[in-house]
Amino acid sequence: xxxxxxxxxxxxxxxxxxxxxxxxxxxxxxxxxxxxxxxxxxxxxxxxxxxxxxxxxxxxxxxxxxxxxxxxxxxxxxxxxxxxxxxxxxxxxxxxxxxxxxxxxxxxxxxxxxxxxxxxxxxxxxxxxxxxxxxxxxxxxxxxxxxxxxxxxxxxxxxxxxxxxxxxxxxxxxxxxxxxxxxxxxxxxxxxxxxxxxxxxxxxxxxxxxxxxxxxxxxxxxxxxxxxxxxxxxxxxxxxxxxxxxxxxxxxxxxxxxxxxxxxxxxxxxxxxxxxxxxxxxxxxxxxxxxxxxxxxxxxxxxxxxxxxxxxxxxxxxxxxxxxxxxxxxxxxxxxxxxxxxxxxxxxxxxxxxxxxxxxxxxxxxxxxxxxxxxxxxxxxxxxxxxxxxxxxxxxxxxxxxxxxxxxxxxxxxxxxxxxxxxxxxxxxxxxxxxxxxxxxxxxxxxxxxxxxxxxxxxxxxxxxxxxxxxxxxxxxxxxxxxxxxxxxxxxxxxxxxx
Length: 499
Ligand code: FRU
Prior knowledge:
Jelly Rolls, five-stranded mixed beta sheet
């Protein structure tokens, strides 16, 4: 049964979505059908296709009562739009269907698990959320909410766990048992990731605290994801209210990757390494799936809460997802590379070897706003140095976005100050990189309004929206001193694949 709230959302998006011109959308990155999008939800492989749902408010470009939007894909690059999957239409989710995940049931149906939000006026008159975990079952198109929802509520919390901040279940199956992790606020005001288990995906039992923040990395931990990877266990989460730590973690809403071993008896993560997931300006709430060939693939919201109220005028949608990225672990650190399927969309290869960059340089046929380009930098000789190297993209004389490398302190800087955006938002981010024998590799993926940067074959990723008109497509290179550079550049061509 499709509720009237869901029917209304579906009619609205079917009516207004087609009015958004294709050239306002990126070629490869998922955008909402219409209106607002935040976190990826229910990222999963189901009946031979990848499904992606997203936090969705179709009626405006602002966050509002959350629905789940829906797209699917055969190759993680070209996406097909589907009608909205969930709307806030029950008492327990009347103020929103918050983030969650998906898994296939033994009978072939797909189970969605999400946070139902209901606001309650407390004795002091303040409206506060009651967040509970709920499920819905469906066929990849239509979903029915379970009559016994919510399936995890206040009574299933550990002592002192907050009933207001309890959200974002990520489900998986191991053997015959289903597990989920969810974020919760603990009595010290910070966050913890709680673990639950179930024989069938409907009846859940609290199983312990997988990891806790103890006010060390931000406060409330949102959107957890937990999985084994290359012999280790990985917990991804997105903390709120971070304070900056060196160049590793920036202030505000950040992202955190904890890598370690699992204490099987206590079901607790023993961490060896803690790092940021992405070092750019626009990246939050990542979620992963496992592909049929065993790859762990992550996608995230390509935005940040701090600046999401500043929007380009006249565009009838807001929000994009990152490209899906393959994850692995190298030297104890998280490695991310764009899914290999992207390479099928490369065309018009341009190669340059050993270009000497010592002042502003442009190269024939190296320009564009939908491209995949790898630059390898190396010193001219073993004894030579240079003060900085700059890559400028999305340029037109007035505008540009810059990636600057300083070899003396091994820092990269992303700077979109001159991208043409009329809001005074955070535009610059610095982070540390690790050149090998003086060599640094930068892979840049541009898709109209975004730049995703992968350093040294994915050792670090940095993601940034750039609000420059797509006609600004000049690319230039600059150095203070001299440096040698190889360039390998492809256009990315995706006929009719705009999302
Ligand atoms: C993270 C988040 C989630 C929540 C959702 C609401 O960006 O705050 O914790 O489920 O957004 O839209």
